[in-house]
């Protein structure tokens, strides 16, 4: 019995291999590829290609965010109280990962019968956001269950950030360019801003570009699904709370902590402000380049330049 306990404690301080670190980081890569594209371009697609009004789209986004405030603590509690043979957190990468990919693709699907349908957009986006929590929350918890080794945790953080930024590069630099390359209307040779690179691009905000959006996004979703599967296969839970430890976990625990834990409130406020400004910039970028600058073909170059300041800090992690 004591040998098993000693082995378990030793396993908790397991040194993560490079493959394990990359495997876990593929989860960040997948989620940024899937939800980063949604966050950065769904509003532009919804208002232009899908012809839904600005006020209606704003209401959909606001309502779903309010639902998230109550839904996420419930998901965290539900996940913490259940364990399967594959683990407590890993199975959700597949259980919810497949519906996540399908629902996100449906938001861009060129289905004639539901084009411009507010009800369809609302239901699919709400379902997508609820399912996303079932992937993202267990994935975040999986990080702490891989190991207690400080050096491995430090390297893991650097690796996952590198892969997350790689996905962001694919989303904000290449995605709008790929969609414009596939858009059928108003095609002409345009300077992309990439060192004189000229491409034959179309108008991706015209309703006729619906198939272009779906085709490019479908490819991204396939890559995202493969990345989630790699994350599932390459990770192992070693530090997991027992059933006795999670028996008294309640959804209201979070709100109790927010009332009594001032450092947690400060940290939460920081993340709220940081993500507010980040999502605001990412969402507005497409509208700004299309309707203010008047050169949507520059979006890729602008996204590339914007990613440069973060590159040195991500690549200079200490061992």
Task: Outline the secondary-structure elements.
Layout: H1 2-12, H2 18-49, H3 54-80, H4 91-95, H5 97-106, H6 118-146, H7 150-182, E1 188-191, E2 198-201, H8 210-234, H9 243-246, H10 253-260, H11 262-293, H12 299-307, H13 310-315
Antiparallel strand pairs: 1-2
Helix pairs in contact: 2-6, 2-7, 2-8, 2-11, 3-6, 5-6, 5-8, 7-8, 7-12
Q: How does this model look, in words?
A:
With 319 residues, the chain is mainly α. It has a single domain (18-311), classed as Up-down Bundle (Growth Hormone, Chain: A). The chain is 72% helix and 3% strand. It contains 13 helices and two strands. It has helices at residues 2-12, 18-49, 54-80, 91-95, 97-106, 118-146, 150-182, 210-234, 243-246, 253-260, 262-293, 299-307, 310-315, and strands spanning 188-191, 198-201. Strands 1-2 form a two-stranded antiparallel ribbon. The protein is globular and about 65 Å long. Mean pLDDT is 86; it is low at 1-8 and 312-319. Belongs to the sodium:galactoside symporter (TC 2.A.2) family. InterPro entries: MFS_2, MFS_trans_sf. GO terms for molecular function: symporter activity. This is Xyloside transporter. Pfam families: MFS_2 (PF13347).
